[in-house]
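Bumping with the actual sequence this time:
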Amino acid sequence: MAAQSFANMDGKIWMDGAFLNWADAKVHVLTHAMHYASAVFEGQRAYNGTIFKLKEHTERLFASADLLGMTPAWSQDQINDACNELLEIQGLTDAYCRPIMWRGSEMMGVSAQANTIHAAIAVWAWPSYFSPEARMKGLKLEISKWRRPAADTAPVHAKAAGLYMICTLSKHAAEANGFDDALMYDYRGQVAEATGANIFFVKDGVLHTPTPDCFLDGITRRSVMGLAEKHGIQVIERAIMPEEMAGFEQAFLTGTAAEVSPISEIGPYNFEVGEITKRLMLDYDALVRGEG
């Protein structure tokens, strides 16, 4: 049986200040964002009726919009209020929340200064990004042929739609080859991130994570770094070369969707699901549910 289309779900979507029936939240085929990727978005999770770090996510949404030269008609407080109200309208306590902003269809071409900036928010029930079985055994990652671009070639610090094209290609290829996800190097050949999550490694009780100079410094990433520091676990941000993975003992992904997900394999490199990874998984689960 085919999965239900996201175009035909039940409930409401907030769009340009109004709560619309889900199926009525539509845009025109000549919307600039569809043709030129002029859109920014956020991924948020609600736990026990509270959206985790909503304020930080909305701040990043507006920062991304600014990087793409987009001036929204709504304040950050209005977006926060709409997210919370929509969660209540949908009757969900554990859910995924997707705010998005994009350029409309007044101008169709690379230049689009006169286009209206639209916004929408959708909320739906969403289970773990990876299956529970894969997550507990450790994810298997392929190494992608695509690389994260340099900071002077794209707005790499925006959560912008166009930057995810190579992530989709990488994840499709990985899944077709029997992997859960893909690890992406950056333009220099250094370890960068997975297709939608940051990465950490463990060696001799110390966390190592790539410096996010050409990809997003994730909100979950920073949360996990804070948890590690509370335990007295040193966190080192630095350039990591691929061959260094042979010497790491543990590895895990962090992200709103991925949460904290252990890795057992990246290409030819193998890792254990060790105590530090397990501890941070449990701590993060407690933190997002208001128990930490």
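The tokens above came from a reply further down the thread. DSSP finds seven helices and 16 strands in the chain.
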